[in-house]
Design goal:
ten-stranded mixed beta sheet; 12 helices; binds nicotinamide-adenine-dinucleotide; 360 residues; alpha/beta; globular
């Protein structure tokens, strides 16, 4: 089959890690009989340098035409780069906010997986980390507290700030459907996280999630209060498959979940809209401290490409092959500088890409 991918390499280590992911995609194409056409677009600092803005409308239009978007990372050193002398709406990150909005990416998906070979980097107690874990956090990205009305004013001589947490049933339903769809591709369990003992928005969340669950009889649904979820993530992370939650709870829990895996260079992510379209990117940033040195870990981006195949192109076997090749390369003892430990072999960004391709 033929697929059109928009590719945004971006700044810093972005071009280095995305090139390795493209190398892996091409190898998958060869092996499984697909052709990936790449439309390379500018976003972030490189777009500012070339066009004066962090993302042009032409780039947005081209991204919309693609089957999916693969992104590296954008931005530079925020203290020294001239990009950060510009007004906020012209800085690199404004490109990211614009593309998320234009593509209507309301669902954020972050896997947190502990590879047995990287257990040493997990900050949890050994009896917990040895069980391993493999979860997916599905976070609502465009509603809730971060998008509600807010104001700060003086009330009876006292400064008072108000933030509003609003969700309507349609916003909840569409993210719940995404969560259950993803669970069907995994171990078929959804933990819906809310604060239904206190918040009205959470009670509506719970009601709508239960309605959606009726269409997925194979999926086990449980509800968990957010304070308990934060605790369970460090006490027994193995219990989770898909965690489905609203914007702010997801913001906090997904960072907590990625911390317990221990390595930023391994963490993929995806943002999806109502169709199968999505934008896939590593969770880390542009790492200006190691950019241009062929040192960055490309695995997060390669695993993001695997998610792209699975969730936007429905190529599950191909995604499995990439994930298995990553596992194998770790089993064989190869590590980039961020995950290297005694007794393992240090390799560069390009070597890691080659080693993964060899194992496909
Ligand atoms: P960062 O994630 O870029 O780096 C934090 C640390 O992790 C650094 O020491 C870096 O070397 C390391 N690191 C990150 N990815 C790595 C990889 N693949 N391999 C090996 N080491 C890796 O975060 P930061 O330093 O806070 O931000 C740098 C720039 O990235 C800023 O301009 C920031 O705004 C931008 N940023 C962009 C995105 C994005 O594009 N989505 C996300 C976060 C930060």
């Amino acid at each position: 089959m033929e697929f059109n991918l928009a590719v945004i390499k971006g700044d810093g280590i972005g071009p280095e890690v995305v090139s390795e992911a493209m190398k892996v995609l091409d190898k998958i194409g060869e092996k499984f009989g697909h052709t990936f056409h790449y439309d390379q677009l500018l976003m972030g600092g490189c777009s500012i340098d070339a066009t004066g803005v962090p993302l042009t409308d032409e780039a947005v239009a081209a991204a919309k035409k693609a089957d999916a978007v693969l992104l590296g990372s954008i931005g530079g050193n925020t203290s020294t780069s001239p990009w950060y002398q510009l007004p906020p709406n012209l800085r690199p990150e404004a490109g990211l906010l614009k593309i998320r909005k234009e593509l209507n990416l309301f669902a954020n998906l972050r896997p947190a997986l502990l590879y047995p070979e990287l257990r040493g980097a997990c900050p949890l107690k050994e009896e917990i980390s040895e069980k391993g874990f493999d979860m997916m956090i599905m976070r609502e990205l465009t509603g809730g507290l971060y998008f509600g009305e807010r104001e700060t004013k003086e009330v009876d001589g006292v400064m008072t700030a108000v933030d509003t947490l609003t969700y309507n049933e349609n916003e909840i339903r569409r993210i719940a459907i995404k969560g259950f769809d993803i669970a069907m591709k995994r171990r078929k369990k959804v933990t819906s996280v809310d604060k239904a003992n206190v918040l009205d928005s959470s009670r509506l969340w719970r009601k709508v999630v239960e309605e959606v669950a009726k269409d997925y009889p194979e999926v086990e649904l449980e509800h968990m209060l957010v304070d308990n979820a934060a605790m369970q993530l460090v006490k027994d992370p193995a219990q989770f498959d898909v965690i489905l939650t609203e914007n702010m709870f997801g913001d906090i829990l997904s960072d907590e979940a990625s911390m317990v895996t221990g390595s930023i260079g391994m963490l993929a992510s995806a943002s999806l809209n109502e169709t199968k379209f999505g934008m896939y990117e590593p969770s880390g940033g542009s790492a200006p401290d190691i950019a241009g040195q062929n040192k960055a870990n490309p695995i997060a981006t390669i695993l993001s490409a695997a998610m792209l195949l699975r969730f936007s192109l429905d190529l599950d076997k191909e995604a499995d092959a990439i994930e298995a090749a990553v596992k194998k390369v770790l089993e064989d003892g190869y590590r980039t500088c961020d995950i290297v430990s005694e007794g393992t072999t240090l390799v560069s960004t390009t070597e890691m890409g080659d080693l993964i391709c060899e194992r496909l």
